Amino acid sequence: MTGETVLALRGISKRFGAVQALTGIELEVRAGEVVALVGDNGAGKSTLVKTIAGVNQPDEGVIEWEGRPVAIHRPQDAQHLGIATVYQDLALCDNLDVVGNLFLGRELKQFGLVLDEVGMEKRSRQLLDSLSIRIPSVRIPIASLSGGQRQVVAIARALIGSPKVVILDEPTAALGVEQTAQVLDLVERLRDQRLGVILISHNMADVMAVADTVAVLRLGRNNGVFDKGSTNQEQIISAITGATDNAVTRRQARGEGDGR
Amino acid sequence: MSGDNPEPGHRPLPEDSMPTGGVNAPVPVAAEATPAVDPRLIVRQEGLKGYLIEFKRRLTSGELGSAPVVVALVVIWAVFGSLNSSFLSAQNLSNLSQQIVGTGMIALGVVFVLLLGEIDLSVGSVSGLCAAIFAVMNVTHGVNQWVALLSAIVGGALVGLVQGLFFAKVGVPAFVVTLAGNLGWNGLMLQILGASGTVNLSGKDIVSRLYSTIYGQQIAAYGLAAAGVVLFLGSSLLDTRRRRAAGVPYRTLTDVLVRTAALAVVGFLVAYTLNQYKGLPLALLVFVVFVVVLEFVLRRTPYGRKVFALGGNIEGARRAGINVDWVRITVFMICSTMAAIGGLFLAAQIQSASQTSGGGNLLMNAIAAAVIGGTSLFGGRGSTWSALLGALVIGSIQSGMNIEGLSNAIQFMITGAVLLAAVVIDSLARRTQKSAGRA
């Protein structure tokens, strides 16, 4: 089901002053794979995402894109490679309509300087239809949309640039049950379209629902990469909380031969 | 007209039958096959009743737009018209249409700054400064009138550049930068005017003629109205055709015709009134052209989209790759340039540039005009038409009070009350929009 590795992090380390935020992080994302990035508060999830998105630069380590090492100095570099990030605050303009937000900063133009509203509306509808996103109208301001609809619009906006990897930062944190389901459906559709997805979440149910691989961070280090098929929630939670982090459990795990 | 409607979901739901909780209620799979209009969307009913329902729905959700200012205008005209019949005479209304141009031009620039959610308190001083630049260059030093005109306008743009740089690059609040500018540019104007303090325009220069020229031929005003109507109808039909071809929702033919008819009624009524007196004033024509062109810039160009985006969410705009500093600087340049143009019209009105140019309550009137017309002080919502409508309200109040022989004291109080009312309406509308999910 999953394809070749699109994005790979090799030994990424990041320091902020005296704080070692990330130490030797390894992470791989394949096309058509949903990688859940989980960990407690302060585990380094956001720092890692910012490193991939070009907001921070790693102190050590290599980011590989389609097998080649790349340097990501600015957010634009990440966008040019094909990495789209949807931050938790969505960054939508409430007063603009859905079309205006989807194409903000890369509007289609007629005659070089006039907005091609018809063309943008048509493409917006095609994009939303292809993701089975149902918005009452693409011509209503974002302010009229529910939290879940805003989230899917923000994700759809990330897709306008045809990225290969999409990073979703806590996409379901502020959503209700139905809206969460809607967003998770969308994540699965991104996977079906052969995109690599990095999903950051605190919600174990969401993670178990859509992730193919679960990467656990603890105190800025890798604390296990689990294949969803061969793991369970308890194992992941114990990795998050550090219950697997002491010598006794590691010894047990070696004995059983199925953990790390 | 139902035959040419592309929307199968064209059955309007009564508003209270909207499923409020189930925004993500499961949607029948059959609907997926035809990318139709979402059944949850309230679609306007056919015919006149549909317009009324739609209009009521917009009002109750706080999308007032120009509705309050139109109501205010009707009330003001009714009150002053009943007090003194000469208020609604063709002569007074024609004069009014010229008198509002100076303030209206300045208000046009203020609209741009307000759309960012910022304010420019220097527009009054800048208008006086640029009028002084023109008068001194043209009259005192005998510089070619076109060079003088260009210098005045470029001077305005430079003022905006300086203020914009301090605001965008240094990060000083716009309020403070332009407050300092208000004093500083006024000082520079006094310096330029020199000892005499007043420079009378020659009366034959381009600026004076811009203001005093009136096209007396009947065809001028009617022709302009007709051209406007034809242009509107043509562009609407073209838009409908393109949208239809692209398979996106479009306005029906009735819709287009109703809108065109409404425009035609207003346009020809104005033209008729103007022709009853002297004819079409050039100043009004220039003002309307500015309003239309700048509205086009705001609504139909990527630049205008950026201005609105900044007014909505600065961080969002920045992440979308918009050069926030550049947009901010250019908006302040547009504002000061419009202040310069407004100042030239005001100078032409009194045929001089003097130490009092750009002073008095001009600054307040210009900002009030933009706000009264419906541009939000909170940014992200507004239109250049609000400058025209707001200037018309303020001009009408002043004109009516002058006819009634009321003192400045009363005028100030009433204008202040109208501005307060406009800001109150803006704030209340914003609150309603929030509760109706539109802000």
From TrEMBL, chain A:
Q: Which residues form the ABC transporter domain?
A: 7-244
Q: What InterPro entries is this protein classified in?
A: AAA+_ATPase (IPR003593), ABC_carbohydrate_import_ATPase (IPR050107), ABC_transporter-like_ATP-bd (IPR003439), ABC_transporter-like_CS (IPR017871), P-loop_NTPase (IPR027417)
Source superkingdom = Bacteria
Asked if the Swiss-Prot or TrEMBL record annotates the protein with the keyword Transferase, the reply is: no
Recorded hits in PROSITE patterns, A to Z, give:
ABC_TRANSPORTER_1, ABC_TRANSPORTER_2
**Which SUPFAM superfamilies would you find in this protein's record?**
P-loop containing nucleoside triphosphate hydrolases (SSF52540)
Keywords for the protein's UniProt record, in alphabetical order:
ATP-binding, Nucleotide-binding
Q: Does the keyword ATP-binding apply?
A: yes
Molecular function terms in GO for this entry? ATP binding; ATP hydrolysis activity
Q: Which CDD domains match?
A: ABC_Carb_Monos_I (cd03216)
Classification via PANTHER family? CARBOHYDRATE TRANSPORT ATP-BINDING PROTEIN MG119-RELATED, SUGAR ABC TRANSPORTER ATP-BINDING PROTEIN
Q: Any idea what this protein is called?
A: ABC transporter ATP-binding protein
From TrEMBL, chain B:
Function (record text): Part of the binding-protein-dependent transport system for D-xylose. Probably responsible for the translocation of the substrate across the membrane.
A Gene Ontology cellular-component term = plasma membrane
Please spell out the taxonomic lineage of the organism that makes this protein. Answer: Bacteria, Bacillati, Actinomycetota, Actinomycetes, Kitasatosporales
* Record protein name field: Xylose transport system permease protein XylH
MF-aspect GO terms: transmembrane transporter activity
Q: Which residues cross the membrane?
A: 64-84, 96-116, 123-140, 146-167, 174-194, 214-235, 256-274, 280-298, 326-350, 362-378, 385-403, 409-429
Q: Which domain of life is it from?
A: Bacteria
Membrane disposition: Multi-pass membrane protein
